[in-house]
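User: Watch each token:
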Amino acid sequence: MTAVLFTCAGQRVDIVSAFARAGATTIAADLDPLAPALYHADHRLPVPRVDDPDYIPAIHAAVAEHDVRLIVPLTDLDHIPLIRARSELDALLLLPSEEVVGRVGDKYLAHRFFDERGIPSPPSWLPQDVPDDASYPLLVKVREGFGSRHIFRAHDRDELDFFLRYTSVDSFVQTCCGGEEFSIDVFCDLEGRCLNAIPRTMIQSKGGESIKGMTIQDRDLIEFGAHVAASLGLVGPGTIQCFREAGGRHEVTDVNPRFGGAFPLPLAAGSRYPELALALAAGERPEPRLGEFRAGVVMTRFFSHLCLTSGDDGTLEPFAEELPEPIASEPGEA
């Protein structure tokens, strides 16, 4: 069984469990001892903060202890430290180059990156470069961050100036797209070939994550997602967010080089992305299977929970919840 290490595992029980079902031995790492994904893995790994000098040594030690063959980061927080330590980790790191990660991580640099690679993207400017004839509404957006935080819609120049003064983060300005929004979940091999691209509608989102959506068999979006992934040089998973504008033109607003929050939807549609990742770790070269998934699969997400109690050694362990004893006697009893 291939040992897979998930870093910044957090709440991604869905991803850890999917790899386990695909035949992996799972090791989940997180700073937070209450991170739910830790308790759904075969092994739990407490680690320091990602900016702590001991973080990479802790990852390296886990790789050696568990004979890890594949490292899958589950948030953007530790991408750069892991990439810089790639050569010493002795396992396949499922991330593209530092240039790609760095440029898509800064939303303004990402826009310029898209332009350089011939990928359509909404007009965007640094605050001091917004032209007088820009078409409103415009969006003031944080350059680095996630979860759709620090985004403001300006309907005229006065509002734009206000929001640029009001925001507390380094921002840029982008034209507001008016078309329909889609996300495309892609997976690429180590050569940057896109093995599959699965588009989905954005029925509802909260905090930047898809809550409800549906897979669609849209050839234009499939081919566009594959083109974007290959043009940028993605390796492993990626989520491409785009809008379909007038005339069928697609404009990319964001690319995340990791599994997206809506991972369960392409998985249910037959993506087999965990199996593809394990194949890459085994040195195999899977062939592209663009368009091979089930359309019309609808996802609606909900919160769940995990209860823990102290084990004999003081560590927390999951336990099976039982119905409490009734407070009152059953009907008919004295």
In short: The first helix runs from residue 13 to 21. The CA atoms of residues 64 and 332 lie 63 Å apart.
